Amino acid sequence: FFFFFKQKTAYEMLRSLVGSEMCIRDRNIGLVTSILALGAAIGAYLSGILASRYGRRLSMIIADILTLVGVFLTLFSSTFVMLLGRVVLGFAIGINTSVVPLYIREISPAQLAGITGCFHQFSISVGILSSLLLGWKTPTESDSDYGTSNYWKLMFAVPIIPSVVRILGLFIVFQNDTPQFLILQGQEAEAESVLQSLYSSQQEAQNQVNLMKQEVSEQSSEITLGALFEQKYLKATLIGITLAWLQQFSGINAVNFYSTKIFSGTFDPKAVISQEVQQTVNLFNALVGVTAVSASLIAILVVEKLGRKSALMIGNFLCLVVLVFLSYFIYAQNFGISKYFVLLHTFAFNISLGPLLSVYLADILPAKGISIGIFTHWICVIIIGFGFPIISSPNVFNTHGGFILFAICCLVGQVFLVLVVKETKGLSLYQSQNLYNDDAKQKDSEN
After folding, report:
1. For an engineered disulfide with 139, which of 4, 143, 257, 307 has Cβ 3.0 to 4.6 Å away?
2. What is the pLDDT of residues 169-180, one digit of tens each?
3. How many C-beta atoms lie closer than 10 Å to residue 161's C-beta?
4. Could you tell me the pTM of the whole model?
5. Which H or E element spans position 306?
């Protein structure tokens, strides 16, 4: 929620502040908007250490406190302080994007893990829609208060609300950590108590405790980041990294980056947008948000019926097809039809690659493994943020050529999904985390 709420509206708001009392220069706007992803990459990388050492619950509380600090800093009328605030916010976002899927997976019964995991993407989609709707009030160049309005402060302050609500919830309602973490800390009685609240059968809760104890006993020492690239976790780690790459190189951020230009019908940066065209842009931006929210809900049904692997293959294939058509219509300068392919791409992404990256990472990897996967995700966000404007320039591949490159990535990803990725639907956490561990499978077969 935090990343998409703040990032989706930041650019236009900062544009409105050029020349105002904040003295944010044009050349600094890209830095202010992109530095959030850099902070998120750092936060994601360190989140595995936080979650393993201090627990999932406390890690989320730390993320919420950092969010409050970051919001406070971004409200200062100083470019340097705002940059610092954006880094702090990014750090909190990186922790959230790694720890929240882990927390959800570890408190969810195996049969419901895919469904509950999809609610993570649903909350992100709600953040996108909220930012787009509230962004309608952002002053534009045709408004008299352009460059002087303080509306940006209200927008930047909104994440205070969910942060405070979650802090209160974690202190008052959700007072225990996940069963998995409690077992790792030797608190078996507390873990069983939490599991009994999740499972209707006391016997099933005890079975889950035994499975977790078995996993801990087979883990001779604390999992380090280096251990993720050793034999036991290597396959799962590489698969997680590849899925994170595929999610971003399916073109979602590039499509979002150019969506306003597609909706306005021009790629000319000097073009003056009329009020009527701006209304069309606002309408289609809102439709993007509505599409994302709707697709995230549909993803819950798709994952429940088809499983993770099939949903990933279907969504990725749809992204591939949509990117090919979108590239063609942009090349033909048919922006009227291109608008609807932006919506189709949003739909395809949010029924598969969007929600299922975090779900699948939490299925197959321990806490520090998830942090590596999410770290890769944010690094790809940064690469695309800086790289796509270059490769899509007229001197390189142009915009339609850039989208074709993403389509090729989806094609490679489709082969990977078909040949390498395995289904985790219905598996316990112990089973799914050993799915790519040949030694564990051999031991199970012998038993």
Report:
1. 143
2. 999 988 889 888
3. 9
4. 0.82
5. helix 275-306
